[in-house]
Amino acid sequence: MIRAELAPFNLPHAPVWARPDRNLREISEAEALFFAGAALSALDSVAKSEPPWAGAWRARLALKSAAAVAQNLLNRREDETALRDAVALAKPGQDLGPAGRVYSAFRTLCGPGDPFRPKRLAAVAADLQAPLDLDGAGELAAALAQAAGRGRPAPTLAAAAAEMVIKMRTDAEPLALFCADAALARALAWPVAVPLLAGELFSRKTGGDGRWPRPGETGWGKLTALAYARAALAALDLAHDLSRRAAQLADAAPKLRAKGKTGAITALLGDDAISAAAPIPGLSDRARRRLFERLVTLGAARELTGRATFRLYGL
């Protein structure tokens, strides 16, 4: 049953010409929009189809976006490894710290429900160090929902969404990038948003050397389009990698004897990283650790930390 559910997913491949080889200063806005359209079109079927490993896929992209925001906009030192630890090793109700809350916010983006719901938007704004009261969040949510319904290219709508946030609060650039991804997903009718923009926005391959335009400044629309072009292709590459890893996990499943193996496999498919201490129905602490180590031995999972203790496992 597990093998059938995890059969290799029929993923699209972006054409070679859809991969931009120039940065912001070497490309026109029309070209950037063209590349973004091609890349997002290739990603569209993945975002709409909900493959079994979609949870792990979106969580990895959320981690990439959160680390980029923490380091480039909030002057934090935490990298992806530190953010992964902050969330995966946290006890229920534990404060995740400033950088960990950024990762939590981007995980919210790719979770169930409407990210533009005022109560959720207010909570995310607080996690991204730009608090809004419920009235302000409601006002922003209404403006974003109205803008998302206009017939413009999706990357253009995403760029405009970020600008709306900055008009309301100039120090809310992390929230602006969150809202851009949410607006993009709504424009493309994706059932769940995919964290994309922040992960590529600050790359030298995208922006080149020098200062990047901020939302509302000249060049912001072009930068957003080019970042989405690169981000969508990177997300598609990750999808291919995780699809292959999920198939390896399915191949290993019949070799596992533990009664709770289905819960462990579901956990690995649903998130970036699973703690060896995380409860899984049907598995004792010892059985859980032995099962994860067995999966690593079989090449069906990876230990992500390199540590002897507080280990984390993932596809």
Question: Overview of this structure, please?
Answer:
This protein is mainly alpha-helical and 315 residues long. The protein has two domains: 30-243, no CATH class; 256-314, Arc Repressor Mutant, subunit A, CATH 1.10.10. It has 14 helices and three strands. A three-stranded antiparallel sheet has the order 1-3-2. Helix 3 crosses helix 5 (97-109) and helix 3 crosses helix 12 (220-252).
- Strand order across the largest sheet: 1-3-2
Total helical segments? 14
The number of strands is 3
User: Major sheet, described briefly?
Assistant: 3 strands, antiparallel
Global Rg: 20 Å
Domain unit count: 2
Measured distance between first and last alpha carbons: 19 Å
**Structural shape:** globular
Q: Report low-confidence residues grouped into runs of 5 or more.
A: none
**Overall helicity:** 55-70%
Mean pLDDT: 90
Break the fold down into its secondary structure elements and pairings:
Layout: H1 2-5, H2 29-49, H3 54-72, H4 80-88, H5 97-109, H6 118-127, H7 134-148, H8 154-168, H9 173-187, H10 197-201, H11 204-207, H12 220-252, H13 261-270, E1 274-275, H14 285-297, E2 302-303, E3 312-314
InterPro entries: DUF1403
